[in-house]
Amino acid sequence: MASGLSPARAIESVRVPLSARAIDLTQAVENVSTQGDRIQVSTAAGADGIVRRIEVNAAKAGTQPYWIAFALTNDTDEQIERLIVAPHFRLVGSGVIWPDLGASRVSAITASQGFPPERDESTDADVFRLTLDPGTTVTYVAELRTPNLPQIYLWEPDAYKDKVTSLTLYKGLIIGISGLLALFLTIVFVVKGALIFPAAAALAWAVLAYVCIDFGFWGKIFDLGNEADRIWRAGAETILAATLLVFLFAYLNLSRWHVRASHVATIWLLFLAGLIGLAIFDAPVAAGVARISLATIAGVGFILVLYLSTHGYDRAVMLIPTWLLLLAWVAAAGFTVTGQLTNDLVSPALIGGLVLIVMLIGFTVMQNAFAGGIAHGSVSDSERRALALTGAGDVIFDWDVAADDIYVSPEAEQHLGLKRGALEGPASAWLDILHPFDRDRYSASLDTVLEQRRGRLAIDFRLR
After folding, report:
1. Model-level pTM?
2. Closest CA to 9 of 39, 49, 50, 51
3. What is the 3-state secondary structure (H, E, C) of the chain?
4. Which residues pair with 118 in a beta bridge?
5. Is 321 exposed, middle or buried (0-12, 13-18, 19+ CB in 10 A)?
6. d(Cα 329, Cα 333) in Å, to the nearest integer?
7. Assigned domain for 6 exists
8. Are 27 and 69 in a shared domain?
9. Are residues 364 and 427 in the same domain?
10. Which residues, 6+ apart, have CB-to-CB distance to 260 below 8 Å?
11. Is 310 exposed, middle or buried (0-12, 13-18, 19+ CB in 10 A)?
């Protein structure tokens, strides 16, 4: 059994005042290395100035765990009771590449004197209760389950209870709002049947799942282990990116602007679907790629929104405020995961901001869908013949909006020297045969008819 080397200097002790509600010990702890399953540590100097040595054995023989050490001083004449709290997951500083998705951090804590800290039951943090006698300095050696310890706090018990209670109330409100929003958009989709509603509803359900996982809701219901929680967290981030891509594609009708948009979106979605499978084997890698994809979708989406807005597309114009808020959210999330924003309120605020974005998306979709009515019915062959007779020789152009299928009378194909049926198919297929200078005007005209849901369309364009 190999012994670890003690530090060259004694540990600096942290004074614990009676009035302190919480003390951040993250910077005060010292990482201690060892080559075996036990370690020797030099304690902090006590009131007599003497530095002692303690030896700690690992909870499981034959292992080589990670260790930290810290010391606390009670220089008052009263006994102090405190809680050592190490959160399982923190979005702050979790990282982008191979992010830290959380796990149980501390397996055991040993005290240099007095009773060892006792573990309190908690689903989202390692909590140990300790007692400091008056005028004592105690050195603590903690055995870690993970190489990283994002944060460790010393809390006054009542203050920590108040914090947990208020955060639980906030979590309940956010989960309730996101759940009602997802249910509402699903019901509207069933009633209205427009394509943008299932895309918006899927995004809302993905946000609800992400919120529940981040708040530990599923863990309380299904008793998930640390590894399962990491897999679910990576999967939720991947699904969030996928549903955001689907919503952007469906809302902006990108297939009508360019035929390759469907190909790009399909490949991207298949890639994200593969990440869900990867999460089972390597959750950090899947989560890291999902975070990069989410930021990329937000950036590319903003460029598309601005481009289509300059071409008079009303849907894109209405999406600008929401997408600006999404970009701000992505920027704030980026600063948070890279450790540049470290406030404890940042993570709950980001979750609330994500729900707010989905709420604004729902309002935007509702405004578009209920601005007016449009008939979605297929036209029979007899009706087409009636239109042809009425046209008296004019070329008949018929667009079945619901099926996205264009019918053109054979005269047009004869004039252009094309085969029968060459001009039939989805509206986006016409982009390849239109003059390059007429393509944007063609797409914008069709989308304007869809937006206004009434009126007539008179437009001249050139075909190859």
Report:
1. 0.74
2. 51
3. CCECCCCCCCCCEEECCCCCCEEECCCCCEEECCCCCEEEEECCCCCCCCCCEEEEECCCCCCCCEEEEEEEEECCCCCEEEEEEEECCCCCCCCCCCCCCCCCCEEEEEECCCCCCEEECCCCEEEEEEEECCCEEEEEEEEECCCCCCCCEEECHHHHHHHHHHHHHHHHHHHHHHHHHHHHHHHHHHHHCCCHHHHHHHHHHHHHHHHHHHCCHHHHHHCCCHHHHHHHHHHHHHHHHHHHHHHHHHHCCHHHHCHHHHHHHHHHHHHHHHHHHHHHHCHHHHHHHHHHHHHHHHHHHHHHHHHHHHCCCHHHHHHHHHHHHHHHHHHHHHHHHCCCCCCCCHHHHHHHHHHHHHHHHHHHHHHHHCCCCCCCCCCCHHHHHHHHHHHCCCCCEEEECCCCEEEECHHHHHHHCCCCCCCCECHHHHHHCECHHHHHHHHHHHHHHHHHCCCCCCCCCCEC
4. 129
5. exposed
6. 6
7. no
8. yes
9. no
10. none
11. exposed
Exposure string of 115-137, with b = 16+ CB inside 10 Å and e = fewer, is eebeeeebebbbbbebbbeeebb
**Rounded mean pLDDT of 197-215?**
90
Residue type, 40: Q
Instruction: For the sheet with 125-132, list strands across it.
Output: 22-24, 153-155, 80-87, 125-132, 118-120
The pLDDT of residue 155 is 93
- What are 22's two structure tokens? 């919480």
* 430 and 318 fall within a common domain: no
Find the CATH number of the domain harbouring 434. 3.30.450
- The Cα angle at residue 125 between residues 119 and 126, in degrees rounded to 5: 30
As a whole number of angstroms, the distance between CA 436 and CA 418 comes to 19
Q: Quick one: 391 and 362 in the same domain?
A: no
Q: Does residue 343 sit in the same domain as residue 266?
A: yes
Give Cα 88 distance to the centre of its chain.
18
Tokens of 213: 């996982």
Residue 426: pLDDT band (50, 70, 90) is confident
> 101: which strand partners?
none
Range of the domain at 45: 13-155
Looking at per-residue pLDDT, the higher value among 83 and 435 belongs to 83
Q: From residue 323, how far is each of 53, 301, 314, 358 by CA, in Å?
A: 59, 8, 14, 11
Total domains, the chain: 3
Which of 60-69, 231-240, 343-352, 402-411 comes out lowest in average pLDDT? Answer: 402-411
Beta-carbon count within 10 A of 33 CB: 11
Whether 172 and 254 share a structural domain:
yes
- Going by C-alpha positions, the residue among 350, 347, 355, 351 that lies closest to residue 92 is 347
- The Cα 177–Cα 108 span in angstroms is 39
